[in-house]
Amino acid sequence: MNTPAPxxxxxxxxxxxxxxxxxxxxAFAFLSVAAVRTGLVPPSADPVAERSQAHVTPAKxxxxxxxxxxxxAVAVRDAATGKLTTAVAAGSKTGFIRGVMRGLARDRHLRGxxxxxxxxxxxWSDGELxxxxxxxxxxxxxxxxxxxxxxxxxxxL
Length: 157
Known about the structure:
This protein is α+β, with helices and mostly antiparallel strands. It is 34% helix and 22% strand.
């Protein structure tokens, strides 16, 4: 004998605790944004501004020009002398340099800027290392990418 299956129970209510937690999370997000926007909480650190405030000076700086070669390598030349500093081969261990430069070149291309303007590689008196695009003013803090990647650029100084 076949007995009909009981009707499934579909309770559409959401547990009260989940609603309270969701409301608290949304309120926290709004209050956090409001605190930063009104100046109650300072925004995240800006390395360029912090260096200026702490009077950190360049210990060593070099202007470099990066040129794409037909074989996928990147030639690195000293902007002042035109002398070849190094060539970064495609697929080499210094692929980080190629990746960073590809991103910066794309930024220049999108803005319609001169691609031959040099990049300034600077080691600061506090030991930090940065790369500044002289065409766009964009600065990349190279220490944020780990010691191995930082060392790849450090070798260009």
